[in-house]
Amino acid sequence: MTVVLEDGTGVAGANSYASENDFDDYTDAHGYTVTVGDTEAALVRATQCLDGIYRQQWPGTRMFGREQSLQWPRTNATDAEGLTIPDDEIPIEIIEATCELALRELAAPNSILPDLERGGGVRMLRAGSVAIEYNNQASATTTLQLIDGILSPIIGGSARSNQTTGTVARG
């Protein structure tokens, strides 16, 4: 799979907010050991995950509407402090969240957005001697606290994040 990088100009066919170089810089800066795998495919899936989960929380509107492949670049976007995000910018928070999700995807392929067959009604999950049982109010999703934290300058910080957290299905 080839990464078509969105650079803030509404690249036709763009499928990732981060390049392999961005990914390498991110993992090096954070001291991560990278699992061997298809980094480009992981970056594309990570971008799909971000756009799918957080698009209702992104500020502003898509710069080129439905003509652009991804949710960024955006116009009339401001960060949590009310500062304008330039129309032709893919915020560093988006790039870093893409890299973090790609890292997780490399460690466990197809884990960031797995299919849910149970409709969220899990009562018991057993694997050998280990069992997990969720109460009736338990969601079938997992809050991505690190991703929420990375994105908090864009999605409104902890106050807004607590109202609508990013989620990924439990796998």
Overview of the molecule:
This protein has 171 residues and is of the alpha+beta class. It has one domain. Helix content is 35%, strand content 12%. It contains five helices and eight strands; from the N terminus they run ααββββαβββααβ. The chain has helices spanning 20-29, 39-54, 92-107, 145-155, 157-163; strands spanning 61-62, 74-75, 77-78, 84-85, 125-127, 130-132, 141-143, 167-169. The strands form four sheets. The chain has a two-stranded antiparallel ribbon. Strands 3-4 form a two-stranded antiparallel ribbon. 31% of the residues are buried. The model is unreliable at 157-171 (pLDDT under 50).
Q: What's the rounded overall pLDDT mean? A: 84
* Rg value: 17 Å
Instruction: Give the class from helix and strand content and strand pairing.
Output: alpha+beta
Which percent band covers the strand fraction?
5-15%
How are the SSEs ordered, and which strands pair?
Layout: H1 20-29, H2 39-54, E1 61-62, E2 74-75, E3 77-78, E4 84-85, H3 92-107, E5 125-127, E6 130-132, E7 141-143, H4 145-155, H5 157-163, E8 167-169
Antiparallel strand pairs: 1-2, 3-4, 5-6, 7-8
Helix pairs in contact: 1-3, 2-3, 3-4, 4-5
